[in-house]
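## tool: complex_structure
## caller: assistant
## args:
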Amino acid sequence: MSPADLINKFPPILHWIKENSSFHTRLHVHNYFSFLFPDSDMNARIVVSIYDENGGRLRDYSTILGTDQSKFIEFSSLLEEVSVTSFQGSVTVQIVPDKEVDIFSKYEFMGSEFYMSYYSKNGGFSIVHNARSVRYLPSRPLRSVMRILIDSNYDTSIVFQNVFYGSFLRSLQTLKPEIIILNRDGASKKLRGPSIPPRGCREVRLLDLDATLGDFLEGQPGAAYLSGKNMYFKPLTLITHLPSNTFGVHHT
Amino acid sequence: MRIQMGYRSIQLAPDNKGTSIPPEACMITQCLGIKNKKISTRFTGFYSKGLYSRTPVDIKLRVEIADKDGNIVGRLSTDKPLKTDQSYCVELSKVLDLLGLKGDFYGQVVMSLEPVGLRSSDLEQYVSTYSLSSTDVCIEYYSDRFYTSVQHSGINPANHLSRRKHHGITMYSPKVFITEKVETYLALIHPTTDPDYDFPAVADIKVLTPEGKSIERRTSPIPARGVYFVNVDHVFEGDARELLRPFGGLGTLKAKTDGQVLMPLVFNHNTVSGAWMIDHTRPAFLEIFEGYKGERHLQMANSLRYQIAHNLIASLPLALRERFKKMPLRPLRNLLGA
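## result:
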């Protein structure tokens, strides 16, 4: 396999970005092939594609990292170049080596490892590692359970992403999330999230879906079970600590 | 000012009869607990009927605390089994109070959900049958200035004498941030559930600039069950900040061990706002996607769908086939996502 074809072995890995005057997103990426194959002197090509919340492709970006090199990419800069300042969307990242080693031929597909950090002017800072790859064909939906905190100190949002990036039966691939909220006593509430088109994403504040959730949870941590049609991805949660206006972004 | 959490913590009592965690128990979370003026720690978990609906036994929560040098300072457990769908919250400060430990603390906290009445030899089969592989615990670090949490379930079994010796691990974290206002701390947790394992570990720590230039140091020995928790710039005696200064303080941290496994956490501390950011790092590894449906499968599917449509039309009775040919193709194309 020629180095140019290696990109087909490293499918796009999905993450979420948000940019506005007070909230920013930064990609942290390192040429970790230097650690894995220290004798190979391997460069890594970083391929980034940005999609808006309805799945429209906004722009691509690519760079090369040499041995042991890293890059910190501010999405505010990438978006400024296409005259976008306030934005929520998805980003796909591929980290592709420029040389073939034996182990690459052993496996059909491999991942790309990176981190995404979110920070605000108020000192809020959170970082999460890469999540899952995009999907080109339907597969078995995933269920996931997440921690939520909603009381006078905390507010929780869930970030839903439709990871379907293919064209096969595209019109049928709308994500329709269902959320079951459980409180500490085991009582449940069922909520419906918004429909999200392929490649799209939405940050959904749980209190906007049901304003009584704070009373329902009685100031205790609760759990959100997530399922639904075309749910192929475990969402992120964004938990804001209201007194300090700091936040944590969490994966499951 | 302490945050008024309003959570009802679960009732724990010192477990004087308790022994160490069964070697084969898999429902274990090993993590760093901190209690001082800047950071408090609590653990929230959820014993979920949805996740564990086939569980035939009662589940008991146990907490084991070791200090930074790996000495077990106390064990606690719930008196009553957890109910299904019961969430629980364990506040480290209350646990330390129960154990009579005063003052600042950092060390390893091991939490386990253990089936009551099962022999440890049953656990492996039990775990594989019922997928009870994680306590699903969030480790939350907070103060009145910040909130952050880490969700991880530890590495088990790790550093276990009955297992094949581990070849070691290379962890990397491209999120070092060292400036006049921001500090980066590294925590290396030395986990084990084997009571007979008692070997210290060392790690080689490297700070790399975005251009690949680096400086390297070796840690002091980290005892089993202990924690190495340091300000990265202090380890390098100020050289790390100078090295990263031309790059806005951003860089990559690498930690490498031979023969043992350590669990790394990276802390970024904004000294102005008082906020801390904490996340686990990942090893440098090649993630393998088994059964992934990639572009090649998509191309196959695209060619197949026209074949299927063609065969479908060809199999229709003649009258219907003629009628179908007169239909506009757009609805069919929409249906097939063309």
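## assistant note: The first strand of chain A starts at residue 13 and ends at 19. Chain A touches chain B through 74 residues (CB under 8 Å). Handing back to user.
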